[in-house]
Amino acid sequence: MTHEQEVEVVAMAISANRTQVNRPWDTLSDEWQDSCRSIARTAIAQIDLLRGSSGAHLRIGDHVEKYTGDYKVKGEVRGVFRAASDSPIRYVVAHRAEGGGLFCHIYAIANLRPA
User: Fold this and answer.
1) Contact at 8 Å (CB) between 111 and 64?
2) How many domains does one find in the chain?
3) 57 in any annotated domain
4) What are the strands of the beta sheet with 63-66, ordered from one edge?
5) Which of 72, 74, 75, 97 has the most C-beta neighbours closer than 10 Å?
């Protein structure tokens, strides 16, 4: 199945869920279909990131060390995202604070290595 075929399948499922009406896909407006395709592309991109199949080097749950710059700290990858479809992958890493609690920072892959 090609990427565009995946988008069509997911878009049709989104449309059926949003309208809760069993209208044939080809009877829906172009605007409606485009809206569903846009949501489908976003969903598939997120799935690809979680699977590690779109260039992501780390996965959610991986233990990493931020080893560049003025400070070094270990943490766990809690999110993987792109700000836009053509932007670089970023990683949300949760760290334990010395006094307790957690904080999250966003990093590029160049700042992280497996812990």
Assistant:
1) no
2) 2
3) no
4) 102-107, 89-96, 73-82, 63-66, 112-114
5) 75
